[in-house]
Each structure stands twice: as C-alpha cells, then as structure tokens.
Design a protein that fits this description.
- The protein is mainly alpha-helical and 211 residues long.
- The chain contains 6 helices and 2 strands.
- Helix 3 crosses helix 6.
- 26% of the residues are buried.
Length: 211
Amino acid sequence: MMRLVVVLLLCRGVVDAAAATCDEDAVALRTHLEREAHRAKVWNTAWMIGFATAAAAQAALALTEYDPFGEFDEDDRDVLWLGATKATLGVGVRVVRPLRARVPATSGDACADAAALRVAVADMGRRERQTFYLTHLGGLALNLTGAAILMVRRGFAVGALSFAISFPIAPLSAYTQPRTSWHLWREQRATWQLGVVPHDGGAMLWLAGAL
C-alpha cells in the first residue's frame, strides 16, 4: 500500500510539473504571437501607405508634367507612369495578401492551448518565410520587367537608372517585415513533438519540446 501511495504521489508530481510547463509555454507562445500580429499589422499598413503615396505622387507629376529636377520630357512621363503602376501593384499585394498572425483562442486546457499555439507559430513562420522570398523575387521580376520596357521605349540609360532607383525597395520591404516566428519555427520545429496515447479507455494528447 505504501508503495502504491508513493507511486501515485510521484505520478501526481509529474502531472503537476507537466501542467506548469504547459502554462508557461502557452503564456510565452501567446505573448509572442500577439506581438508578432501587431508588428505584422504595422508593417502591412506602413508599406501600403508608402506605396499608395508613391503611386499618387508619381501619377500627379506625370499628369501635371512637372519635373522638380529639370525640364519635363517623354522620358519623365514613361518613368513616372511606370513607377506609379509598380507602386499600385505594391498596394494591391499588401491588400490582397497581407501578412497576418493567427492567435488561437484559449480553451481552458493549458496543454491543448500550447499545442495549438505551436501550430500557429509554425503557420506564421511559414507565412513569414514565403512573404520574405516572394517580396524579393516579385520585386526583382517587376523591376526587371519595368526596366526592359523603358529600355525598349526610351533607351538603355533610362531603363537602367529606373532599375537602380526602384530595385532596393523590395529588399527594404522584405528585411523590415516581422521574421521572429520564422526564426523560432526554424529553430524549434525539430524538437516539437505531438502524439496520442491510450488512457483510461480513451486517449491522451501529449506534447514534448522546448521553447
């Protein structure tokens, strides 16, 4: 009997320790995701406003035929309209495909919450990775296309100058985006394990890993 009591007490200690770990993990993961969701919202909004402002400014200069650095000519018109078009596409991307973090609602079960939050972190990590690379590649493709159009219409120098001015925008956008979930997911995904084992005629969900 004494041995049975000792075993039960040890089992209870293990359960309590696991519950405490789940609580800590759930709080840490939720805090991370909420912070990442806020940063993603700020990043989306800031770049959407920036692209919209650039599109409006270049369209206005083209319509008014105004060059603040000299006499307005056909080169200026083509460069400005192309720039306004690219900036408008930038706005569209931020509206149609914004970077967002999903924060699961609490369920009352800390271990279940921790498992759901880990899934949400992994999902956000994949979103951040995809957005990072698509921003680079999409910006490169768009600027190369624009430069080629200008080279055909206005000459090599005009196209090359337009590319040199506009190309850094895509890397700047990519490197200012939130990437913490991507880094966390990449570092921890090999150690996160989720499983189900039989328990009292039913099943018990278990989660193993470290944050």
